[in-house]
């Protein structure tokens, strides 16, 4: 019914940049909040950045000033521009969407995850 497909992950050297994208499709009436999470091996999944339906943004302290979250409501897409990458940013990144389906059910959906590896 609803799918979130991520893209843009890869291998990059420290100091480099990557741009992640996540496109939502399916029986969607309206998307509320969208956010990005990441999980490194042996660690808990953590919130990296979020953007509300009203456009308010929130970032983890570790990425403030380096990452920028944005959304395009016409394409139901959320992006994460990652600059000045550090080895500590290495993780699987997941997008999440809080949305209202066409049957007016409020649901939360996760993308499949995309690997980001930053070498020193």
Please, could you describe this protein's structure?
This protein is an all-beta fold and 120 residues long. Helices cover 0% and strands 62% of the residues. It has strands at residues 2-7, 10-13, 18-26, 28-39, 46-51, 57-59, 67-72, 77-82, 91-101, 106-110, 114-119. The strands form two sheets. Strands 2, 4, 5, 6, 9, 10 and 11 form a seven-stranded mixed sheet that branches. A four-stranded antiparallel sheet has the order 1-3-8-7, with no helix packed on it. A hairpin with a 4-residue loop joins strand 7 (67-72) and strand 8 (77-82). The protein is elongated and about 50 Å long. The N and C termini lie far apart (41 Å). The mean pLDDT is 97.
Mean pLDDT: 97
State the secondary-structure class.
mainly beta
What would you call the shape?
A: elongated
Number of strands: 11
Order of helices and strands: EEEEEEEEEEE
Uncertain stretches of 5 or more adjacent residues: none
In helices, the fraction of residues equals: under 10%
The total count of helices amounts to 0
Radius of gyration: 14 Å
Gap between N and C termini, in Å? 41 Å
Could you tell me the strand content as a percent range? over 45%
Question: What can be said about the biggest beta sheet?
Answer: 7 strands, mixed
């Amino acid at each position: 019914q609803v799918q979130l497909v991520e893209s843009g992950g890869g291998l990059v050297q420290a100091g480099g940049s990557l741009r992640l994208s996540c496109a939502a499709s399916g029986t969607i009436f309206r998307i509320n909040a969208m956010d990005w999470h990441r999980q490194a091996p042996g660690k808990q999944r953590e919130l990296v950045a979020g953007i509300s339906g009203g456009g308010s943004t929130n970032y983890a302290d570790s990425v403030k000033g380096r990452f920028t979250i944005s959304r395009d409501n016409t394409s139901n897409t959320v992006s994460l521009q990652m600059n000045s990458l550090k080895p500590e940013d290495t993780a699987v990144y997941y997008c999440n969407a809080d949305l209202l389906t066409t049957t007016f059910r409020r649901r939360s959906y996760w993308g499949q995850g995309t690997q980001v590896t930053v070498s020193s």
